[in-house]
Amino acid sequence: MANLLWLQGGACSGNTMSFLNAEEPSACDLVTDFGINILWQPSLGLELGENVKTILKKCISGEIKLDIFVFEGSVVNAPNGTGEWNRFCGRPMKEWVKELSEAADFVVAIGDCATYGGIPAMAPNPTESVGLQFLKRAKGGSLGTNFKAKSGLPVINIPGCPAHPDWVTQILVAVATGRAGDLTLDEFHRPKTFFSSFTQTGCTRNMHFAYKVSTTAFGQRKGCLFYDLGCRGPMTHSPCNRILWNRHSSKTRAGMPCLGCTEPEFPFFDLNPGTVFKTQTMMGVPKDMPTGVDKVGYIKLTAAAKGMAPKWAEEDIFVV
Amino acid sequence: MREQMDAVATARDTKYFTERYGLSPADADHDLLLRMIEDMFFDGLVTEVEPFPETDREFGKLLDILRPLSADELRQKLVISGWLLEPYGPDRMRCQECMYYLVHRRWCDLPELNLPAKPDWWCRLWRI
């Protein structure tokens, strides 16, 4: 039996909604098949008020063993570093976060806000939001660079806006069943099992990427979304086209450009007008190249690919 | 006043194309549109090749000007987009490598232009 406590900071509850949609395994499977005891969760917990506070205090004192502490949403520090803008159970949430993280065997940050600050931490960041151990790409966050949970692992980051439900439940099962040692984390503390490949990996538009045929307007099923509509699939680490959403699709398959929500910088360019759904270029060349590709190579590759592109690449091949 | 002047210019262009080719650009097929474009340049059409839109904001401003133009406003489309019948610049940029160019259809797929083009042509909305 592994005790799990889940709290929310500066959050929209999107990751809770995502978690409740999990299928492999489902949220119920965590309890019935994998021995996870959910002590409290904002949308599932039955306790209110003082009873919640009692659970938190017992976790901190050790009276209740806290195996997994899950946090969703940013850690709010405003105003002036006090955290008073996000109070919970009689005190700033940031104080609960610190003490519960120190008491837990594993700390798991879920969603972009908890991992890297996300949208709340976007400039000018009026809530002084940070992630648990990062603020965007900078190490530190709320718990500090050197924080390690009792297990010896730093905060396990499962980013996304929201995180895919199966990423969440599979990591929780791994931790709860004693297989945390199998987890390897990348430099941003993301489990490599999910975040080594790219969003582009498995995208149905890959052939259009290869032959440099662009989607030039929403609704087109031909073409790649990277060249004109701002898709970040070639430089975003996520398995969105390997572990499909709702088991059958993904943003890019449905014609929606990837926004790069599993990367620390999300939302990119602070959502300045003209930066969303538009590939940012300088003198006609994309500012952000596919990972590992340089400008000279990109131009040469484009010339060769367009010269060799087959006729079908310019057509909507999904129409029968 | 400006709208009235634009409307007059458009009507004049439509009349010009209809008298010369029997069709306006909106009704012309691929080959006839290519001919119309080439003929305008042979007749001395000068387009706004510079400044090149270095950033997306500048690029977007050009699209905002092009978007309301109808298919018959071919002359304005060519002028605003800085259309040329040859490669441009030291890098010899041309339609063939542009992201909006469909090489088999020989067509510029940028919705705001939506015109036939030859591989060695170019315009300042070029992007790779």
Topology:
The complex is a heterodimer of chains A (320) and B (128).
Chain A: E1 2-8, H1 14-20, H2 27-32, E2 36-40, H3 50-61, E3 68-72, E4 87-88, E5 91-92, H4 93-103, E6 106-110, H5 112-116, E7 134-135, E8 138-139, E9 156-158, H6 165-176, H7 192-195, H8 206-210, E10 281-282, E11 285-286, H9 295-308
Helix pairs in contact in A: 1-6, 3-4
Chain B: H1 2-21, H2 30-42, H3 56-66, H4 74-81, E1 101-102, E2 107-108, E3 115-116
Antiparallel strand pairs in B: 1-2, 2-3
Mean pLDDT of chain B: 92
Ranges of chain A where pLDDT stays below 50 over 5 or more residues in a row are: none
Largest sheet of chain A: 5 strands, parallel
The shape of chain A is elongated
What is the string of helix and strand elements of chain B?
HHHHEEE
Fraction in beta strands of chain B: under 5%
| Sequence of secondary-structure elements of chain A | EHHEHEEEHEHEEEHHHEEH
What is the overall number of helices of chain B? 4
Kindly provide the radius of gyration of chain B, computed on alpha-carbon positions and rounded to a whole number of angstroms.
14 Å
Features:
heterodimer; A: about 325 residues; alpha/beta; Rossmann fold; Cytochrome-c3 Hydrogenase, Chain A, domain 2; 2 domains; 5-stranded parallel beta sheet; two-stranded antiparallel ribbon; 11 strands; about 25% helix; B: about 130 residues; mainly alpha; 3-stranded antiparallel beta sheet; 4 helices; about 5% strand
Describe the structure.
The complex is a heterodimer of chains A (320) and B (128). Chain A has helices at 14-20, 27-32, 50-61, 93-103, 112-116, 165-176, 192-195, 206-210, 295-308; strands at 2-8, 36-40, 68-72, 87-88, 91-92, 106-110, 134-135, 138-139, 156-158, 281-282, 285-286. With 320 residues, chain A is of the alpha/beta class. Chain A folds into two domains: 2-194, NADH:ubiquinone oxidoreductase-like, 20kDa subunit (Rossmann fold), CATH 3.40.50; 197-320, Irregular (Cytochrome-c3 Hydrogenase, Chain A, domain 2). A five-stranded parallel beta sheet of chain A has the order 2-1-3-6-9, with helices on both faces. In chain A, a hairpin with a 2-residue loop joins strand 4 and strand 5 (91-92). In chain A, helix 1 (14-20) packs across helix 6 and helix 3 runs parallel beside helix 4. The radius of gyration of chain A is 21 Å and the shape is elongated. With 128 residues, chain B is mainly alpha-helical. Chain B has a domain at 2-84. Helices cover 41% and strands 5% of the residues of chain B. A three-stranded antiparallel beta sheet of chain B has the order 1-2-3. Chains A and B meet through strand 10, strand 11 and helix 9 of A and helix 3 and strand 1 of B.
